[in-house]
Design goal:
A hairpin with an 8-residue loop joins strand 6 and strand 7. It contains 6 helices and 10 strands. The chain is of the alpha/beta class and 248 residues long. It has 2 domains: 155 residues, Rossmann fold (3-Layer(aba) Sandwich); 59 residues, SH3 type barrels, CATH 2.30.30.140. The N and C termini lie far apart (39 Å). Helix 1 packs across helix 5 and helix 2 packs parallel to helix 5.
């Protein structure tokens, strides 16, 4: 049973590429929910969309579908509220165009928070890698956010997520294979972190939030840091500070 009304889903609305993107995002979302995630929804420009997406997941209209934890975040400081609300393993859905600076900032910080991201929008696409999943309407029509095309996308996202629940074998992601006790590739991989507090003294490390939780990191190589700085970490030390161009 479809919950989408007054929208005829044809090739002009959901093409093959968007269908594949929806399938991938739905599976990822189902896996996160299965592991205990909360869904957080932001839409600084179009607040009603944030509420609508959250309601779809937390209050299903189809009998027998499970309610899923979802909350709309609508404070004036989108980044600060999302930072406080999220925990590792959660998901953030943003409904916004690619020019929304607050959303772009959330997306680039999300890996340091351990959060998976889905970006729904229209017009010019965000740059590659800006979000884990991008669901995009390829049109420059400024009225697009007020049409059924956005609603159709997140209705389908909700429905396909529940379809994934009907196949329990899909809900556990495959563990990465590594034949060696110490993987050369993994051990040489930098991790993104967000500074929570600078070092208390010259002998201390900075308190940094990463996808694994908070930890102390040596920042002597990069010098002074302030809360909110994004840094690349390797071997317990910060290698470089990442500017606003990161993720853009």
């Amino acid at each position: 049973m479809s919950t989408v009304h007054d929208v005829a889903a044809g090739p002009s609305l959901i093409d093959a590429d968007l269908s594949a993107d929806l399938a991938g995002a739905s599976l990822a979302l189902a896996r996160r929910f299965h592991s205990g995630a909360t869904l957080w929804v932001i839409s600084p420009q179009w607040e009603p969309h944030a509420h609508h997406v959250a309601v779809e997941f937390v209050h299903p209209v189809v009998v027998g579908k499970r309610a899923l934890p979802a909350v709309a975040l609508v404070a004036a400081d989108t980044v600060a509220e999302t930072r406080i609300a999220t925990r590792p393993g959660d998901v953030v859905i943003a409904v916004a165009d690619a020019a929304d600076n607050a959303v772009a900032d959330v997306m680039r910080r999300a890996p340091a928070w351990g959060v998976e991201t889905i970006w729904i929008g229209y017009g010019e696409r965000p740059p590659p890698g800006a979000s884990d999943h991008v669901l995009w309407v390829p049109t420059d029509d400024p009225m697009t956010p007020a049409t059924g095309r956005f609603v159709l996308m997140y209705h389908l996202l909700w429905e396909l997520t529940h379809v994934c629940f009907e196949h329990p074998g899909l809900l556990k992601a495959a563990e990465p294979e590594c034949a060696d006790d110490v993987c050369i590739t993994c051990s040489d991989e930098g991790r993104l972190g967000e500074v929570v507090a600078p070092p208390a003294d010259i002998m201390s490390g900075a308190l940094v939030r990463t996808a694994e939780g908070e930890e102390y990191v040596d920042t002597m190589v990069i010098g002074d840091v302030v809360p909110g700085d994004l840094i690349l970490i390797h071997g317990g030390a910060a290698l470089t500070r990442l500017g606003e161009e990161f993720g853009s």
